[in-house]
Amino acid sequence: MPSVISKYMENIPPAQKQLFSKAILGSALAYWGYRLAAQNLRKKSPLSQHHKKLLYNGDTAKESFDYDNNCVDNMNNNIVPVNKVRLKNKHEKKSKKNSPEFNKEFILQVIKLIRLMIPSVYSYEVGLLICHTLALITRTFMSIYVATMEGRMVRYIVQKDVNNFAFMLVKWLVVAIPATILNSTIRYLENKLALAFR
């Protein structure tokens, strides 16, 4: 759609293009302001026209409706006692209390888990962690090296230097072999660590 509009805009003189774009922007802003104002007015009004129709049967109003102890359910267009709404809020608060929190109990549980997963400093798990960490550090440096090589390759392409580009391409292919082995080693060590921690 924007490409169609831009094709029509090519034939319009520059002064009218500016006026046309201002008109589109102004109408979009006016529509946005109308939507915001309508939402605010709906929030401020106690009952919309649809809910007023629910409250009135013909000419006589429902006298049993108490505005202090009832509210309108917007989803189902029903009148719901406030007590039920308060009960829902209480249940929501209880469910929030059951959600996990970062507190002293959580930290103690994590410490217990770490003691189970890593029984001592000289254990098999610590060796795996050290190997995994070293592999990750090596991959970081290798990624930086490969990125600089690719930058040089692009520079040689722009300069149309075929010899240096071919040399960098061979060098990049040679570096790709240990990089692939390193990535596979990292995945292997992650799996070994998961098994060891279980």
From TrEMBL:
<dbReference type="GO" id="GO:0005324">
    <property type="term" value="F:long-chain fatty acid transmembrane transporter activity"/>
</dbReference>
<dbReference type="GO" id="GO:0007031">
    <property type="term" value="P:peroxisome organization"/>
</dbReference>
<feature type="transmembrane region" description="Helical">
    <location>
        <begin position="121"/>
        <end position="145"/>
    </location>
</feature>
<dbReference type="Pfam" id="PF06472">
    <property type="entry name" value="ABC_membrane_2"/>
</dbReference>
<dbReference type="GO" id="GO:0005524">
    <property type="term" value="F:ATP binding"/>
</dbReference>
<dbReference type="GO" id="GO:0005778">
    <property type="term" value="C:peroxisomal membrane"/>
</dbReference>
<feature type="transmembrane region" description="Helical">
    <location>
        <begin position="165"/>
        <end position="189"/>
    </location>
</feature>
<feature type="domain" description="ABC transmembrane type-1">
    <location>
        <begin position="113"/>
        <end position="198"/>
    </location>
</feature>
<dbReference type="GO" id="GO:0140359">
    <property type="term" value="F:ABC-type transporter activity"/>
</dbReference>
<keyword id="KW-0813">Transport</keyword>
<dbReference type="GO" id="GO:0042760">
    <property type="term" value="P:very long-chain fatty acid catabolic process"/>
</dbReference>
<protein>
    <submittedName>
        <fullName>ATP-binding cassette sub-family D member 2-like</fullName>
    </submittedName>
</protein>
<dbReference type="InterPro" id="IPR050835">
    <property type="entry name" value="ABC_transporter_sub-D"/>
</dbReference>
<dbReference type="InterPro" id="IPR011527">
    <property type="entry name" value="ABC1_TM_dom"/>
</dbReference>
<dbReference type="GO" id="GO:0006635">
    <property type="term" value="P:fatty acid beta-oxidation"/>
</dbReference>
<keyword id="KW-1133">Transmembrane helix</keyword>
<keyword id="KW-0812">Transmembrane</keyword>
<dbReference type="GO" id="GO:0015910">
    <property type="term" value="P:long-chain fatty acid import into peroxisome"/>
</dbReference>
<keyword id="KW-0472">Membrane</keyword>
